[in-house]
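Private note to self, pasted from the team thread so I don't lose it. Backbone tokens:
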């Protein structure tokens, strides 16, 4: 089987990693998106099973844990599980593509540890927690208590920034997209991690 590389984008919620990953996928046909499994409900009607996430019941998720079907998994919030299925990586590598991840910080560190030198782990962050709070409010998808919970978690996640290969500060989106593309190209062509 083709052994591709792993490009990991992690960030506190609201930092813009999903926008960056979607841009890289749209402009780099050699990338395949790793669809995470989760137990949360769909957000709006735009999210689709097997495209955005594999939406599983907690029982289904736990059965896959018991069968060792995950590279990594965690209970992100009480009763809310997220994870990366081994079958998902095999699916993408079988297509001759490199795999790109959009995962939370803990998941990103687990993936970096799993893939080792085959991985580029990018930590995406915004200039400040105030900017992050504003972005979460602007989404209009969450309650104040949910935003408060995410900000508390973001402060904790930022303490792991130095464990990633590189930090991408997402202040200006166009600049961030350009830098993300440069990071990707340097890593895939030369195995180097530069920004």
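Design output:
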């Amino acid at each position: 089987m083709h052994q591709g590389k792993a490009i990991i984008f992690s960030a506190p919620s609201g930092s813009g990693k999903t926008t960056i990953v979607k841009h890289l996928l749209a402009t780099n046909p050699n990338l395949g998106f790793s669809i995470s499994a989760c137990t949360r409900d769909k957000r709006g009607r735009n999210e689709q099973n097997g495209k955005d996430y594999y939406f599983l019941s907690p029982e289904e998720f736990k059965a896959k844990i018991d069968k060792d079907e995950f590279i990594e998994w965690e209970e992100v919030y009480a009763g809310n599980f997220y994870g990366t299925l081994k079958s998902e990586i095999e699916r993408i590598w079988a297509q001759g593509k490199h795999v790109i991840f959009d995962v939370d910080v803990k998941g990103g560190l687990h993936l970096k540890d799993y893939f080792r030198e085959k991985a580029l782990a990018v930590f995406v962050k915004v200039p400040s927690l105030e900017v992050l709070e504003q972005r979460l409010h602007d989404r209009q998808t969450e309650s104040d208590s949910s935003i408060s919970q995410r900000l508390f978690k973001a402060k904790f996640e930022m303490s792991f920034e130095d464990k990633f290969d590189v930090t991408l500060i997402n202040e200006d989106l166009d600049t961030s997209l350009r830098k993300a593309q440069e990071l990707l190209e340097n890593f895939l062509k030369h195995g180097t991690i530069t920004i």
